[in-house]
Design brief:
alpha/beta, Rossmann fold, seven-stranded parallel beta sheet, two-stranded parallel sheet, 9 strands, globular, binds NADP nicotinamide-adenine-dinucleotide phosphate
Length: about 280
């Protein structure tokens, strides 16, 4: 699907060393694109580059990586400018770098809240602010990764949801501004996806959050990346992989009160079950 769209194009992916970002990198590589990934950890970046190379259509496709903390505005300016010089300006930018520390609101220290917002929101802002000027001459596509928790406030996700709702608002404004430059903007809202981030959340999140998550279907990172690439090809603004997520999105817009009542009932049930343990 859409192979000609991405063949020979230059794709930048933050958070491309793991999970959804890595699956997207493999997906674009299989469609003939040149891919550069960004994350902090060098070791995972090195392993990811090898995986992405194995997905290539042809050995002429370039795959590269750079260590980068997206929350650090100056580092983003410096490294992304180096990337543009060495690898070429991006035709596609995927902002997948993200973190989540679900916990009860009172247990989330201010530093964790700041780190969540700095990575998920400011990180997305930082890469866009550096790369948009380089994308304007050729046009392109930016996909910012939000979440179902970016349009539905979920128990335990006060910091995460705040950052992901903000990514939705940022993306909507940016879409409108970049349209005249033939730069499309999309926002991807994955449901629970089987990645290292989700496994960590399952280990540390409050019992109520885990109970709510337990009712949802978990998708593979490959499935989410495929849905993203298909949604991009169709020029969709909000891309929600899976029927369940799309249903929640519709229900949240049409019947927000009902959705809140269902969520509250799930929390009450989880608490009751915990008190019987
Ligand atoms: N998994 C889910 O259930 C789910 C659901 C909805 C939305 N999402 C969103 O999807 C995106 C990808 O999540 P994932 O589940 O694929 O997570 P993941 O497997 O943990 O991957 C996260 C990636 O982001 C990088 N990263 C984290 N902080 C960074 C920073 N400050 N600077 C640069 N890179 C950073 C990580 O590498 P380093 O740690 O080495 O930097 C890693 O490459 C996130 O935005 C997440 O919020 C995930």
């Amino acid at each position: 699907m859409g192979s000609s769209l991405y063949k020979g194009r230059i794709i930048y992916i933050t958070g491309g060393s793991s999970g959804i970002g890595l699956a997207a990198a493999r997906g674009f590589s299989a469609l003939g694109a040149h891919v550069i990934i960004f994350a902090r950890g060098e070791e995972r970046l090195g392993k990811a580059v090898k995986e992405i190379e194995r997905s290539r259509m042809s050995k002429t496709q370039r795959v590269s990586s750079m260590s980068l903390d997206v929350a650090d505005h100056h580092a983003v300016q410096e490294q992304m400018t180096r990337a543009v010089t060495g690898f070429g300006a991006p035709g596609v930018l995927i902002n997948s770098a993200g973190i989540a520390y679900p916990d009860y609101f009172e247990n989330i220290p201010q530093e964790k809240f700041r780190e969540t917002v700095s990575t998920n929101l400011c990180g997305t802002w930082n890469t866009c602010s550096c790369l948009v000027p380089y994308m304007k001459p050729g046009g392109g596509h930016i996909v910012n990764i939000s979440s179902i928790a970016g349009f539905l406030g979920v128990f335990g996700y006060t910091a995460y949801s705040a950052s992901k709702f903000a990514v939705m608002g940022f993306s909507e404004s940016l879409r409108s501004e970049l349209r005249p430059y033939r730069i499309k903007v999309s926002v991807l809202c994955p449901p629970d996806t089987d990645t290292p981030q989700l496994r960590e959340e399952d280990r540390t999140g409050p019992a109520e959050t885990r109970a709510i998550a337990g009712n949802a279907t978990v998708m593979s990172a490959e499935h989410v990346a495929d849905a993203m690439i298909r949604g991009m090809g169709r020029g969709q603004f909000v891309i929600i992989p899976g029927v369940e997520g799309r249903f929640i999105h519709l229900a949240q817009r049409l019947f927000p009160g009902l959705v809140r009542r269902i969520m509250d009932a799930q929390v009450r049930k989880a608490r009751k079950a915990a008190s019987h343990e």
